[in-house]
Design a protein that fits this description.
10-stranded antiparallel β-sheet, Cyclophilin-like_dom_sf, Cyclophilin-type_PPIase_dom, EC 5.2.1.8, alpha+beta, Cyclophilin_A-like, 21% strand
Amino acid sequence: MRTRPAPRVLARRAATRPLAAVAVVACLTSLAACGSDEEPTAEDTSAASPATSESASGSPSDDGSAAGSGSCDYPQDGQPAKEVDPPETTPTVSGEVSADVATSAGDIGLTLDADAAPCTVNSFVSLAEQGYFDGTTCHRLTTEGIYVLQCGDPTGTGTGGPGYTIPDELTGEETYPAGTLAMAKTMYPDSGGSQFFMVYEESPLPPDYTVFGTIDDAGLDLLTEIGDEGTDNGTGDGAPATPVDIESVTVG
């Protein structure tokens, strides 16, 4: 996340899902794909925002489903960074769904909220069950303006995605306190993909990023330690100094 609230996960549509902002402050305030040529996407928008650099077209989807519609639309968007099938259009889970992210730095426990974000959770579960996240690295850590670790790009560059986009599932009242799990996206609506970010300290992001779960206390402590170590380049936005490689994501 070279843009504050947007880890690189958000900028896929802009060619990278990481949050990308106009500047470092933008990166820190948007979770788009920063560090890529694309604008912040929920994966890497700016150093202050979680944007993704996934290879999205950079334009909003023609027909993104809203949460609670009973059916989800996942428009094709570029080539997948890792071979994977798109999720079923009808969500396969509901309520609270537990997940465990095993990483080289330690385990991070998640609780996914399939009622609040059915299409997002449906996609995350599908990708996890297909091993999409296995063997990938969390490519972006933001320690100024916003405080997030961004993951979910098999290329490790903030530009990779699953080959489809996810509709935004927003109420307009989203906040991003410590322990929040949310999707990165580009500057365009409905541009999320596979990149997501985990908030380890309250971050003043706009209500543009779908919140689809929470992080357990042990995972939050681990993320805080990773944040305290800073980035490998010594700036407020870059790869974490302590590498965080996802070994597996287990759901249920």
